[in-house]
Amino acid sequence: MRIRIGRNTYCIGFGLLQGLFIITEQGITATKRDQDDPAPLRLLGVGPGQALVARAALPSLLSGCWLAIALAVLCAAGTLHGWVWPLLGLAAGPGLTAGILRMARTARINPADRGPDTPMGSTPPWLISRMLSVIVAVIGTVALVHALLKGEAHATTVIDQCVASVIVLWAYVMIARALSR
């Protein structure tokens, strides 16, 4: 079955994404603080890489639970068919966390920074960095995005999403740990 797309579905989707960003913001506040001030990490005796691994747990849990609840509500409302969707949301949480953590660890926005010149003008580096973070999040949730576009989810989709989430989060944490040493 296909998802019936109407005006309400877009509003529901936008609301769910907004809620997802609000929920995960609560989980990454400490990551932003670690990036700005490394003194608490020194006091605890942990390195930035160890702290990043520990800081990845809460956003993974929050985003996975939020997606599971949101997709369950959409199943109950009849927008999505089948009850595999909440499992798919739980599996997508860690994949989404890689993009969220990358966005949290980027430098603050500085309007004075000039980036590469394009035909439309100069592109600020902070914009490029944030767009790459969104791309990482989409790659981490590729099976969920594909299932939503197709309108159907199966058990193999959940397995694919688990694999994609683990690979993307693991790769991001390993790269970020190597760069933070």
How would you characterize the overall build of this protein?
- The protein has one domain (7-108, 117-180).
- Helices cover 75% and strands 2% of the residues.
- The protein contains eight helices and two strands, in the order H-H-H-H-H-E-E-H-H-H.
- The protein has helices at 7-36, 39-44, 48-55, 57-77, 85-104, 125-140, 142-150, 155-180; strands spanning 117-118, 121-122.
- Strands 1-2 form a two-stranded antiparallel sheet.
- The termini are far apart.
- The mean pLDDT is 84.
What is the fold's blueprint, element by element?
Elements: H1 7-36, H2 39-44, H3 48-55, H4 57-77, H5 85-104, E1 117-118, E2 121-122, H6 125-140, H7 142-150, H8 155-180
Q: What's the structural domain tally?
A: 1
Shape: globular
* Order of helix and strand elements from N to C terminus: HHHHHEEHHH
> Low-confidence runs (pLDDT<50, min 5 residues)?
none
Q: Largest sheet at a glance?
A: 2 strands, antiparallel
Biggest sheet strand line-up? 1-2
The percent of residues in helical segments reads over 70%
Q: Tally the helices: what do you get?
A: 8
State mean pLDDT (0 to 100 scale).
Answer: 84
Strand portion: under 5%
Determine the structural class based on helices, strands and strand pairing: mainly alpha
What distance lies between the first and last C-alpha atoms, to the nearest angstrom? 49 Å
Count of strand segments = 2
Radius of gyration: 18 Å
